[in-house]
Amino acid sequence: MPAVHADPTAAREFAFEVVARLRRAGHEAVWAGGCVRDELLGHTPADYDVATSAKPEDVRKLFGQRRTLAVGAAFGVMTVLGPRPAGQVEVATFRADAPYTDGRHPAGVTFCGAREDALRRDFTINGMFFDPLEGRVIDYVGGQDDLKEGLIRAIGVATMRFGEDHLRMLRAVRFSAGFGFPLEHETRRAVEAMAHLVESVSPERIAAELRTMAARPGRGQAISLLVETGLAGPVFHEFHQHDAAFWRRAAATVDALDEPSLPLLLAILCQQDSAAATRLAHRLRLSNHERKLTQWLVAAEHAMSEATAAGELAEQPWSILQPWLGHAWRFQLADLRRAVAATTGQGSEAASWVSRQVTRPQVELDPAELLSGHDLLALGVPAGPDIGAMLKKLRSLQLDDEVTSREEAMQKIAAWLASG
Prior knowledge:
Elements: H1 8-24, E1 29-32, H2 34-41, E2 49-52, H3 56-63, E3 68-72, E4 77-81, E5 88-93, E6 95-97, E7 109-111, H4 114-119, E8 129-131, E9 136-138, H5 143-149, H6 158-164, H7 168-179, H8 185-194, H9 203-215, H10 219-229, H11 232-235, H12 244-256, H13 262-270, H14 274-283, H15 288-309, H16 318-325, H17 330-344, H18 348-357, H19 362-365, H20 373-378, H21 385-399, H22 406-418
Parallel strand pairs: 2-5
Antiparallel strand pairs: 1-2, 1-8, 3-4, 4-5, 6-7, 8-9
């Protein structure tokens, strides 16, 4: 499991110590997977994985029951907990997988040596090991060559790797877009031929991949690759039928975001289609926050577009715009409006105006209401729907600066009551 808010230096030192301790106990142990790739690219690894000849029970005995989690012990994986700044390290026993029967899990595992373990991994750039004690790369799959050439290549036969775990096709797109490496020819052909199998992947796993794609550089290219390889269909049932021009604009808009996120990506793809946004958010089983933000952004973008069509935004009544521009999620909306304008070349002045509005003090964007329901009851407004209707009408007048004080608000209510 990835370290949560780990200090990079502390995380690296702890990962080094895990290897050193396993080695002192007589076991083979090395760093494995993505951390090796990132090291070779000169990037700071987000987390560290260790591969070892030690069995899960050996790892637990060595590090202690209180410092280990046996979440993946059935597959030879133990999580070793480090000091708070260092996070945690996954320690996996070298293994070979039995045939996969469900497109995700092997029917079983057998413990083996480092070479066999490397050959069951997904892509060559993720299949290398690194000995941190000796500073030596151990490469059984040609990962160093592909890293230098800049290629995403499946280890062994691509169709076999993707048949084992269908999610690997989405990972191929994510790595290709994120690193700017093209898919190797046979790897890409396999993705194109097997794209439909992604439908069998759990919604949560698909959402996790999309979440990572959305947040990282290359996100626009990721959208383009999903379309080109045929993955967009099974991933985005709700609107995959859009034409090439739509997808080009969407990819460019996603790239133009300043604070990218999955809800913003989905709002761009849904193109003001609230029904599609709702179906997609539920199908992908997004968190409540992500689902609500996606739906709100789609509705807000639709409202902004309608207001723009009616004339200059700055000339529109503030009571129409305030529910959106005074909302807690207004900064995401401003980012979306700016990205759309940057992509289409239209509405840049309106987008700049929105960006200025959302930075105004909160007391200006969302001033306290002048009267409450209790106040209206005290003024003689009968209990019932009239209370809500009058409060809503009074709020619009307040936001448009037509009623500016509590006294004026009470006079307005009295006048409405007098007029019947």
